[in-house]
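STRUCTURE:
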């Protein structure tokens, strides 16, 4: 399928002062992923749940000095 014709929906919202929730729905190719970004200090924890194919992924990161 031509890339420009693939339909997607992306929606997100802050659910509390440290947590951002993002939903990705690739309507025409059965991709549906939920993301949760939790910010604390100079770190972030990311949780991703791909509801159509795989269980989940979770990882953390932090700000490094340039």
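SEQUENCE:
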């Amino acid at each position: 399928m031509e890339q420009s014709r693939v339909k997607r929906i992306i929606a997100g919202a802050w659910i509390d002062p440290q947590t951002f929730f993002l939903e990705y729905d690739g309507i025409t190719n059965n991709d549906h992923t939920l993301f949760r970004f939790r910010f604390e200090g100079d770190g972030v924890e990311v949780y991703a749940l791909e509801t159509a194919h795989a269980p989940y992924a979770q990882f953390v990161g932090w700000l490094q000095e340039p």
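REMARK: Strands lie at 9-16, 19-26, 31-40, 43-50, 56-62.
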